[in-house]
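User: Need the bound-state model for iron/sulfur cluster:
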Amino acid sequence: MTKEEQAGKRLAKKENAKIAMDKKEAAKKKQALEIIKRLKIQYPDAGCTLDYNEAWKLLVSVRLAAQCTDARVNVVVEGLYKKYPSVETLAEAPVEDIEAIVKPCGLGHSKARDISACMKILKEQYGGNVPDQFEQLLKLPGVGRKSANLIMGDVFGKPAIVTDTHCIRLVNRMGLVENIKEPKKVEMALWKIIPPEEGSDFCHRLVYHGREICTARTKPFCEKCCLCDICGKNGV
Ligand code: SF4
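Assistant: Bound-state model below.
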């Protein structure tokens, strides 16, 4: 085989691989759209399960929610906001006092330290407001991609993919991603197949579905799942 023929063969192989990838992605997009459609019917009102009425409160709650249930966070923050009802008062609160209040959520010391530092930055750099840019959010203490996406989607109504434990488990089982467990990689894979405007609500619905049907601690209830015929059921 001549050098030209070898180069042509390599190119054809590359092109075929690309065509196969595109086909796979198109199939996943189609599957994702159908899943989105069905979950909308199943959970029409799915929203954030953390209670908040101001953007900064969601920032606080999402930090407290690490390794804690949303239900417990919703109770604990009531006491916190009673004592410190604004960004300014919370920014000036002694860290030990915040820690004493948020202790029931676990990891009290680091959560209190992050909340205090975060509120100070909001007060000093953003006039008490929460920034609406993803990169700015990511720079806040205790805010990772998951939290920043949650704020972008829920507070600012911008495209967002929140890769929490439910999302990661479900999209792998469904076959929307293939054995990807690292949150950022799952997020990047989902950006390719989920319409941006659907991402935030889709992830909220996955939480509901993950709690009620596609459970982690028991065998998932595939027989009563609205996605049974279109789910890959990987690892189930
Ligand atoms: S069919 Fe089973 S594995 Fe698939 S989403 Fe439903 S409960 Fe989960």
